[in-house]
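Worked example 3 (structure in, sequence out).
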């Protein structure tokens, strides 16, 4: 029986938001006010699409974007944690569910030689167009009122679990590691033996704490982390049981 580790990416694996990090490539490392203020809640992917057009129009090429993205720092302890998971793949299946995009995540993981740690990456598909501009699309469509229109992480997780079950893979426990408001929906899918690991001081921890105060706690256990070393310590305990 394996354990399934589910990771968010921004502010979880890396210590920044990869989508806003790319702005370092923009002229003077900032966006024009009109573009910056054009974001509408729930429509982040379209907003990023406009940023990529702006970068392209200003002559920012793929190699410069890649160089910039691979300087993004990993969260404290994350390099050790991913090394530990990579050394124990017989115990762990490991996936990323992220609202970033496939190009950024691929660049960052490959540069640090961590791509093989993850069995699958579920994120918004991206590619460079014939004009050399980066384009990004919504990951899927869904009917969840709680999530941004391009991605319901609960739907992704449920479909992955169902697909694995069809292939005879049943997990002893799911460990969900994240930080953001859009990580709450998949955490509500977790069962009694599963574990949600929200990052200390971030939105997911605050939302889970509020649910507990409202006497409407999630079914799974909740363990807060501040360094990925905390996660690694827990996984070591889990595998020794």
């Amino acid at each position: 029986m394996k354990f399934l580790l589910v990771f968010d990416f921004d502010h979880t694996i890396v210590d920044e938001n990869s989508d806003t990090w790319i702005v370092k490539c923009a002229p003077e490392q900032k966006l024009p006010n009109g573009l910056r203020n054009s974001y509408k809640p729930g429509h982040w992917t379209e907003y990023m699409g406009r940023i990529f057009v702006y970068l392209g129009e200003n002559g920012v090429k793929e190699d410069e974007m890649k160089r910039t993205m691979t300087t993004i720092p990993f969260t404290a302890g994350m390099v050790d944690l991913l090394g530990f998971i990579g050394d124990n793949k017989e115990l762990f299946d490991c996936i990323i569910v992220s609202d970033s995009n496939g190009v950024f995540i691929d660049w960052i993981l490959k540069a640090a030689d961590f791509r093989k740690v993850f069995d699958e990456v579920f994120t918004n598909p991206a590619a460079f167009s014939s004009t050399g501009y980066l384009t990004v699309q919504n990951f899927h469509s869904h009917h969840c009122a709680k999530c941004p229109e391009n991605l319901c992480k609960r739907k992704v997780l449920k479909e992955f679990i169902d697909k694995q079950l069809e292939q005879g893979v049943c997990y002893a426990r799911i460990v969900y590691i994240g930080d953001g408001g859009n990580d709450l929906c998949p955490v509500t899918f977790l069962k009694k033996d599963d574990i949600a690991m929200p990052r200390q001081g971030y939105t997911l921890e605050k939302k889970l704490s509020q649910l507990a105060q409202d006497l409407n706690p999630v079914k799974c256990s909740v363990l807060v982390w501040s360094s990925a070393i905390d996660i690694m310590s827990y996984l070591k305990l889990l595998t020794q049981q």
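Notes: The chain has a mean pLDDT of 94. The chain has ten helices and eight strands.
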